[in-house]
Design a protein that fits this description.
The complex is a heterodimer of chains A (94) and B (250). With 94 residues, chain A is of the alpha+beta class. Chain A is 22% helix and 26% strand. Chain A has a three-stranded antiparallel sheet, with helices on one face. Chain B is mainly alpha-helical and 250 residues long. The two termini of chain B are 32 Å apart. Classes of the chains: A alpha+beta (94), B mainly alpha (250). At the A-B interface, helix 1 of A face helix 2 and helix 6 of B.
């Protein structure tokens, strides 16, 4: 089956969610059926208002070995973290 | 016998029996995704069956609950159409049965949302949302597999030829239908026939399948309680617990 049905990654935007979140993988022969399958496998409990599917082969990922180079520098520069300002109530979710 | 009670049993039993059939696939579907999809459809249908049967019990007025109606009736007291009790067979057989049923079911529910009976209209409205998806999925798969490999095409055509004789009953009206039509509760069964033939014809053409003759000889009797021999086996399994341990609860 896996030979003919490529792997897809499913992203679902929840009822109150601001963005699509990755929910898991599934197999399907094409995008249309991938959306149907994502619906059946991942959205039974009223979870979503939007579904994205993308071929897993289309996703480029950072490598765990690059973690230090990619993320470490910012940790030592305290001025990069905007924690010195009182934040107005209204922008809590930013 | 109350005609509305009879009619509600037909609606409820269609959903109940098909749900039971689909449940037999759980864990055996050809792919994880298909397995989930069939289980979802089965759960949708059991939910619909509960609503119809609970209302049937209410209309009957003898205090019978949805559970008693589901688990304590014998085959001759079931009013489902013969199509839904057909064995699962191969995945192609199940898919074709589902498609033929879904395409009719949606037309029926659409009509019932305009029922003079508010409760029937409300249940139909809820069920219609689910069945819209059932049909989208089963029609899609029928087109894919009909127009797929030589083998998938052959299997679907065989399933279609085999199941066709059970579709006539969907449009066969009797006294119960006539009474409900007069009350404005339901349309006559026959009014769905032309739209159904047109719609199924288009899907089957896209699927490169050959539609059998609409004049073909048709099997019937389910709505009146005359079932095929598979029905007894289906009920024996479905009702085992209540038969063996009467009154048992979860």
């Amino acid at each position: 089956m896996s030979k003919e049905w490529p792997l897809w990654e499913g992203f679902i935007r929840s009822q109150h969610g601001l963005a699509h979140k990755h929910v898991g993988s599934l197999h399907a022969p094409d995008a249309e059926m991938a959306i149907n399958n994502a619906r059946d496998v991942y959205t039974r409990r009223n979870e979503g208002v939007g579904i994205w599917v993308v071929r897993a082969s289309e996703i480029a990922s950072s490598s765990p070995g690059d973690k230090t180079a990619l993320f470490e520098p910012s940790n030592s520069k305290v001025y990069r973290h905007p924690t010195f300002f009182p934040m107005p109530e209204e922008v809590k979710n930013l | 016998m109350d005609d509305k009670f009879e009619y509600l049993l037909r609606l409820g039993d269609n959903a109940l029996v098909l749900s039971q059939r689909l449940t037999e696939w759980v864990g055996k579907g050809p792919a994880l995704e298909e397995d989930m999809a069939l289980a979802n459809t089965a759960l949708d249908l059991i939910g619909q069956a509960r609503l119809w049967l609970a209302y049937a019990g209410e209309v009957e007025g003898l205090g019978r609950t949805e559970d008693q109606l589901a688990f304590l009736r014998d085959a001759h007291q079931f009013r489902n159409v013969l199509l839904v009790e057909r064995p699962n067979g191969s995945y192609a057989d199940t898919l074709m049965r589902q498609y033929l049923f879904d395409s009719w079911h949606l037309l029926l529910l659409d009509a019932l949302t305009r029922s003079a009976d508010g409760q029937i209209a409300a249940i139909a409205e809820k069920a219609r949302k689910e069945v819209t998806y059932h049909l989208r999925r089963s029609a899609d798969l029928v087109m894919r597999l009909g127009d797929g490999t030589a083998e998938s095409h052959r299997r679907l055509q065989d399933a279609l030829d085999e199941l066709w004789m059970y579709t006539g009953e969907l449009f066969e009206g009797d006294d119960v239908d006539a009474v409900l039509q007069a009350q404005g509760v339901a349309d006559s069964a026959a009014t769905l026939r032309e739209p159904w033939l047109a719609q199924v014809g288009r899907t089957l053409t896209t699927a490169t399948l050959t539609m059998p003759s609409s004049q073909a000889w048709m099997q019937k009797g389910g709505k009146q309680g005359r079932h095929t021999e598979q029905m007894g086996f289906l009920l024996a399994e479905m009702q085992f617990l209540q038969r063996a341990y009467p009154g048992q609860q979860w």
